[in-house]
Description:
69% helix, single chain, mainly alpha, 489 residues
Amino acid sequence: MLYKKEWLKALIPIIIGFIVFFIPQPESLSINAWIFTSIFAALIMALILEPAPPAFLGIIGVVIAVLFKVGPVGSGAINNATSAAQAIKWGLSGFSNTVVWLIFVAFMIGLGYKTSGFGHRLALFLVKKMGRTTLGLGYAISITDVILAPFIPSNAARSGGILYPMVTSIPPMFGSYPDKDAKKIGAYLAWTAYAATCVSSSIFLTGQAPNPLAVELAVKAGIPMVGWGGWFVAFLPVAIILFLLTPLLTYWIYPPEIKDCKKISAWIDEEYSKLGPMNKKEIAMMLISILALILWIGSKFFGIHPTTTALTILVLMLMFRVITWDEMLGNRPAWNVLLWFATLITMASGLKNVGFLAWLASEAGSYFQGLSPTWAVLGLLILFCVLRYFFASGTAYTTAMVALFATLLQHIPGVNPSEAMLILLLPMGLMGVLAPYATGHSPVWFASHYVKSSDFWRLGAIFGLIFLVIFILIDIPYIHYIYPYLSHF
């Protein structure tokens, strides 16, 4: 429901949508494609301003697109023959996305950590061992994430399923809650965990699922690519810098109010001793977590999809009564994220389906062909990163854009397509920091509400710019020098 004071926030996206619609559409795009583009532009503005809950906004966008029968494959044609059945099938397609359900179960795993008390015990242990300072906690989170990153190719599973329940168990010990005193420590820890996972997602080829997918798409487009070792070596200088910098950068830009935790160390020791031995629920949650970690790490070996593992974990938590059925149904943040992310993935797919992205790549290609190889690659890199704002997941972004940019690179004189493609793909994980829908673990931390919506967008832009500048200044010259040797790794 919209309150009267929110009327301006609700009006601005509508105005933006009409402005885009009344701008004459490009000759190569039909009126149907332009209708969808205007709907999508209005939705993005609405998500930024949030006149209503994001999930509700996503549903509104899907419903409007379905009513106009724009969004499905072929609906961007001049003579749009999309049926009502095809439109609604496309409108609901986001609910079959595996990442959506992985994120949903990540919230349920977090509920299991909370209701069993296991998350509280882990959090106390973490604070007891490394929580002398808030900055120390930030580095502890980053270290944990980077250790898990090469083995868990889903950053949603890694950050949302493992780190999220542990990290969000810490702030309440300091009286920091999403709706009260979040800046004490909760906001710092949440953003550090989110940004650290974006960094680790770029460090390893298996740091996030879209990385190997992108490499495969590039190869299919005719561009040879490096393997696991070559990817790691190519990103190594930036990896070291950003791993060391991220918790400290957050500490400077988004400082916590509590900086020295020594004053409560005695209280933590006392609280930890009060816990006593682990109860049955904690033991069950611990064993289930170990199983989840094993199956996520060995997903290819066992032949089990990460989302299948997540659903299995949900079943086990219910069977062993770590959580009850009523508790699962009452987990409002989980259901909210399910609705929100599913609708955004649907809307993002529509941009490709109606031909908007193909038009954009064509227009950009004609411009970049007139530039020198260095400026062309730099321009494509910036465009490749900025376009992340238009996608509701890293997988959708990769599927829609990699083949298009691979084609562009092969048509620019003087450019080494393999080297240039590597430059474009390496920071994909980093750019997940831009928006609360840009990558798998984004909605988890955004929906925790420790970081306000406006702060999330602001910090995303700041960190995204810093990450990209460091990558351009450090890694591009390094890759140009070392590229001939990367095939040996």
